[in-house]
């Protein structure tokens, strides 16, 4: 690295921009450039500019008082400038400074406003960054690389402490000193932050402890509240579900009662309508009176005719007696009497036959009704028998379950109320058409005996029950856990193939809440007619079962053969008729209804049998009566025929008839005809009257029957209404209980009952419910003990905890940073000590050599000055608590030292000893001015030889030397030029002859410095 150029503008007397270019190294030798000029021309301002651009802050060192003194102040010919700017351009092709640039341009600008800036390669940086950059290159504003006027003399006259700092820079530890200084500042800042954080921690920690206690109570309260909420959900869900089940049962019964009521009401309306029609028909008394009147009129006419006829017959008898034919008259009279009697017998026979026919019609009706009652009684008895068998099969038939190997299943189903969530076995929950029964039984397999529960908790309780009572093993399918099987995408296409009956899942009728269960059991099982259909679909493509029970699995395996019509074990046939779907309680209810119906049918059947016997007895009497009347008619016919025969034998001759008899006989015949006609009218009137009476009698019987039937229906309706009222009251009570329960839930838990039910909380038995209620009371008691806590405490605790955690983290970071800084300072101290010791030994040796060269003899040496320092160090938790300013190199590493006294030898300065030839000097101040200059030059040359700077500025350092000493100095200068570039400000002509290039500085009357350059080659 070497200095390529300097550009100065507005700095002190250089009002105009000047540019100094320096000769690059040639043949391994650095250039030597001399700057000459008369006194006051401003040539020393060049060294000041170099010192200034490298970060010099002391205005005294720059020969000024204020910072703006370095800006051109103006002259008579030119006004003052507003800015001073200096740029050093360094060649960094050897990358002595570890940056990526081959050329480094360092610029410093100062404005009259006071703004100051440092720029490296066009990028603005901080002063500390510049100092570190220059320290890495082994030069800086206060180092031996820039030796100004008077500095060469002060080098020996300064104190040992000041000389030590000079040697530290000469040892190349300037960079580490800067870093150490930064670390010390950071340590002080960190310690201050640590103290502040500890003060804040001492304030926050007690409050956090108090808040933590309250939050812990609040957490306990929340735990109790959570437990109370969980218990409350179970408690209220159980009560609600229990009430809901009762309501469902009551409403189901209410629906049955309502249907029964509607049916009875309908029948009663029919009876009442018929009765109303019978009762509301037009009165038939007038018709009866008219018929009776007509009958009486006909009877009166007949009596009148018979009276007239009797008169005529008497007259004829008289006439017969006159001619001696009294027997003819008697025979005619007798025949007339018998005919009249016969007519009465015929009327009686007609009435008897009609009565017999009517009774036969009633007999047929009663027998038909009786047959219906018998059929209904038979059906009811069969239903009772079937229900009893089913009921016993479910509840009491031990052998059925044992033969099926399902003793455990039987135990669970018999005691299902214990578990509150057992729906039954799979075989009970699905209804299957008869033609698919075998196929679906085989497809379901062992799953038919699996018990379906509401959730896994019910299953767990049932399993524990079986284990405790050693009842065997059962399979449980919880609805809440069983997942449906994945449906194949090509199922719809397969279902269209001829011979495919459908998906097994679609052929079972079940409640939709069991859809996941049946989907899990059947999955993608396809029901087909036979194996040929299965083969056409592709065996192994999907699970298939034939109507004959042959199974083709997805794995390709096939199972089938001869099966008996009735399978052993469980079957979907158990669910036939829906009785099993209702469960045991429904069986009991239906059984009770069937028995009640049977009792009613038996009563009606007994009444019908009694009526049948009475009708049969009446028919027998009517038949006997008709038979007697027929015999009487037959006897009369025989007697009339005999008398007619006798009358024919006693006929009178025409001669015996007189005119009177002819007239009487004609009149008698006419009366006979009239009497016959009247008798026909009489028969018709009596028949009409008899028909009227019969119809009226039937109506009366029907009214009485309808009244009895209506009374029976009304009685049944009253019972149904009473039951309906009871059910309505019970339902109203349960509704009110549910409403009160919902209000209680909202009051206790501030939740709607629907929200609780949606969470599907576990339900428990009545015994467990009592225990849960006790736990709820205990939780409420614990809540009262804990008391109310403001929820804002949680927010404050979170904020305080966040602050505490932040402070804890900050303290940890600060302590760690402090430890790292201490370690860094210790490491820097170690590095500086090693470099200082090494450099001091070499500089000491070279100083003695150059002294002998310059003085041609004599002795010179450097002496380190040590002092014993006692410091009190207190370490508490690894934190420094020291009084006074402690050097970072002296900070102990141990973190557990408390109040320990420590003594240590420290380097406080460096002294120089010089004895020119032939002299014995004890104090260096006793040297003459020239001797001090030579001694200082020897020291500077020793430093430059050991730790060469890229370039060195010497401002009139040989001004006090004579020509001979100047020659020796120049000789040494040529030796050092092999390693460092030199910029000499001088008046000495010998030195000028040594330089490779000359720059002349001149100043005119305008007070502005200007440059002239000379190439000496």
Shape: rod-shaped
Mean pLDDT across every amino acid position: 78
By CATH, the superfamily of the domain at 1-150 and 953-1017 comes out as: P-loop containing nucleotide triphosphate hydrolases
Radius of gyration equals 71 Å
Query: Approximately what portion of the residues adopt beta-strand conformation?
Result: 5-15%
Would you give an account of this structure?
The chain has 1017 residues and is α+β, with helices and mostly antiparallel strands. Among the domains are: 1-150 and 953-1017, P-loop containing nucleotide triphosphate hydrolases (Rossmann fold, 3-Layer(aba) Sandwich), CATH 3.40.50; 405-569, Taq DNA Polymerase, Chain T, domain 4. 59% of the residues lie in helices and 13% in strands. The chain is built from 23 helices and 26 strands. The strands form seven sheets. The chain has a six-stranded antiparallel sheet with strand order 2-1-4-5-6-7. The chain has a six-stranded mixed sheet with strand order 8-23-24-3-25-26. Helix 12 (456-469) links the parallel strand 11 (451-453) and strand 12 (476-478). Helix 6 (285-323) runs antiparallel to helix 17 and helix 20 (792-855) crosses helix 21. The protein is rod-shaped, with a radius of gyration of 71 Å. It starts with a strand and ends with a strand. 28% of the residues are buried. The model is unreliable at 394-404, 576-585 and 870-902 (pLDDT under 50).
């Amino acid at each position: 690295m070497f200095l390529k150029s300097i550009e100065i503008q507005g700095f002190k007397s250089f009002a105009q921009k000047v540019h100094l270019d320096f000769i690059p190294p040639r043949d391994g030798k650095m250039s030597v450039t001399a700057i000459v000029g008369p006194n006051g021309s401003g040539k020393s301002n060049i060294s000041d500019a170099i010192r200034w651009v490298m970060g010099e802050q002391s205005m005294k060192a720059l020969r000024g008082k204020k910072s703006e003194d370095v800006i051109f102040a103006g002259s008579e010919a030119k006004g003052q400038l507003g800015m001073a700017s200096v740029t050093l351009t360094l060649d960094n092709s050897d990358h002595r400074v570890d940056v990526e640039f081959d050329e480094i341009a360092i610029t410093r600008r100062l404005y009259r406003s006071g703004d100051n800036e440092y720029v490296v390669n066009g990028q603005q940086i901080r002063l500390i960054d510049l100092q570190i950059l220059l320290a890495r290159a082994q030069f800086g504003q206060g180092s031996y690389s820039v030796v100004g006027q008077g500095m060469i003399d002060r080098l020996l006259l300064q104190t040992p402490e000041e000389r030590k700092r000079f040697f530290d820079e000469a040892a190349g530890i300037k960079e580490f000193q800067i870093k150490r200084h930064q670390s010390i500042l950071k340590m002080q800042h960190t310690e201050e932050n640590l103290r502040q954080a500890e003060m804040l921690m001492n304030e926050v920690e007690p409050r956090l402890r108090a808040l933590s206690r309250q939050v812990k109570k609040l957490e306990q309260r929340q735990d109790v509240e959570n437990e109370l909420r969980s218990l409350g959900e179970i408690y209220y869900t159980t009560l609600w579900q229990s009430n809901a089940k009762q309501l469902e049962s009551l409403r189901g019964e209410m629906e049955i009662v309502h249907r029964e009521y509607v049916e009875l009401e309908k029948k009663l309306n029919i009876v009442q309508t018929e009765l109303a029609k019978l009762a509301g028909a037009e009165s038939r008394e007038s018709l009866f009176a008219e018929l009776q009147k007509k009958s009486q009129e006909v009877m009166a006419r007949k009596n009148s005719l018979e009276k007239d006829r009797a008169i005529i017959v008497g007259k004829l008898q008289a006439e017969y007696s006159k001619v001696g034919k009294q027997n003819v008259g008697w025979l005619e009279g007798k025949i007339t009497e018998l005919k009249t009697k016969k007519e009465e017998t015929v009327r009686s026979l007609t009435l008897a036959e009609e009565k017999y026919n009517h009774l036969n019609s009633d007999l047929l009706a009663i027998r038909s009704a009786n047959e219906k009652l018998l059929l209904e009684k038979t059906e009811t008895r069969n239903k009772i028998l079937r229900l009893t068998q089913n009921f016993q099969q479910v509840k009491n038939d031990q052998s059925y379950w044992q033969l099926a190997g399902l003793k455990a299943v039987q135990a669970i189903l018999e005691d299902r109320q214990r578990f509150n969530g057992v729906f039954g076995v799979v075989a009970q929950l699905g209804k299957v058409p008869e033609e698919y029964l075998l196929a679906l039984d085989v497809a379901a397999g062992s799953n038919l005996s699996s018990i379906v529960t509401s959730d896994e908790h019910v299953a767990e309780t049932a399993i524990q029950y079986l284990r405790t009572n050693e009842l065997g093993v059962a399979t449980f399918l919880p609805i809440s856990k069983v997942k449906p099987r994945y449906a194949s995408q090509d199922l719809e296409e397969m279902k269209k193939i001829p011979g495919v009956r459908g998906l097994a899942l679609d052929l079972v009728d079940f409640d939709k809440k069991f859809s996941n269960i049946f989907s899990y059991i059947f999955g993608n099982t396809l029901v087909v007619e036979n194996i040929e259909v299965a083969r056409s679909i592709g065996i192994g493509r999907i699970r298939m079962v034939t109507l004959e029970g042959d199974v083709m699995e997805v794995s390709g395996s096939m199972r089938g053969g001869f099966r008996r019509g009735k399978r052993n074990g469980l079957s979907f046939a158990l669910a036939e008729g829906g009785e099993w779907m209702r469960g045991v309680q429904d069986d009991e209810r239906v059984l009770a209804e069937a028995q009640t119906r049977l009792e009613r049918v038996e009563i009606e059947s007994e009444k019908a049998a009694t009526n049948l016997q009475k009708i049969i007895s009446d028919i027998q009497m009517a038949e006997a009566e008709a038979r007697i009347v027929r015999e009487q008619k037959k006897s009369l016919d025989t007697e009339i025929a005999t008398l007619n025969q006798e009358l024919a034998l006693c006929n009178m001759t025409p001669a015996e008839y007189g005119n009177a008899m002819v007239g009487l006989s004609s009149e008698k015949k006419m009366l006979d005809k009239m009497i016959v006609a009247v008798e026909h009218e009489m028969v018709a009137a009596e028949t009409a009257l008899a028909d009227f009476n019969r119809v009226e009698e039937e109506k009366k019987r029907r009214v009485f029957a309808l009244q009895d039937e209506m009374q029976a229906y009304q009685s049944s309706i009253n019972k149904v209404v009473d039951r309906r009222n009871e059910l309505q009251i019970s339902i109203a009570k349960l509704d009110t209980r549910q409403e009160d329960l919902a209000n209680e839930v909202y009051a206790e838990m501030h939740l709607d009952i629907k929200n609780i039910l949606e969470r599907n909380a576990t339900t428990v038995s009545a015994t467990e419910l009592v225990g849960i209620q006790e736990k709820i009371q205990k939780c409420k008691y614990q809540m009262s003990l804990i008391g109310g806590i403001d929820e804002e405490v949680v927010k404050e605790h979170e904020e305080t905890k966040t602050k505490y955690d932040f402070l804890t983290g900050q303290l940890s970071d600060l302590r760690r940073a402090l430890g790292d800084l201490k370690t860094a300072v210790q490491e820097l101290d170690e590095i500086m000590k090693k470099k200082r010791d090494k450099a001091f030994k070499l500089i000491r040796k070279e100083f003695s050599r150059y002294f002998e060269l310059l003085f041609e003899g004599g002795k010179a040496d450097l002496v380190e000055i040590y002092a014993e320092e006692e410091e009190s160090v207190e370490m508490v938790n690894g934190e420094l608590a020291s009084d006074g300013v402690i050097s970072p190199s002296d900070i102990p590493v141990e973190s557990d030292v408390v109040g320990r006294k420590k003594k240590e030898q420290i380097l406080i300065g460096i002294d120089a000893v010089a004895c020119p030839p032939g002299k014995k000097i004890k104090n260096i101040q006793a040297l003459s001015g020239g001797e001090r200059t030579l001694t200082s030059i020897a020291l500077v040359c020793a430093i430059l030889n050991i730790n060469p700077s890229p370039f060195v500025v010497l401002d009139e350092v040989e001004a006090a030397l004579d020509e001979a000493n100047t020659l020796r100095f120049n000789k040494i200068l040529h030796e050092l030029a092999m390693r460092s570039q030199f910029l000499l400000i001088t008046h000495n002509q010998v030195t000028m002859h040594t330089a490779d290039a000359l720059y002349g500085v001149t100043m005119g009357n305008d007070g502005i410095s200007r440059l002239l350059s000379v190439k000496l080659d």
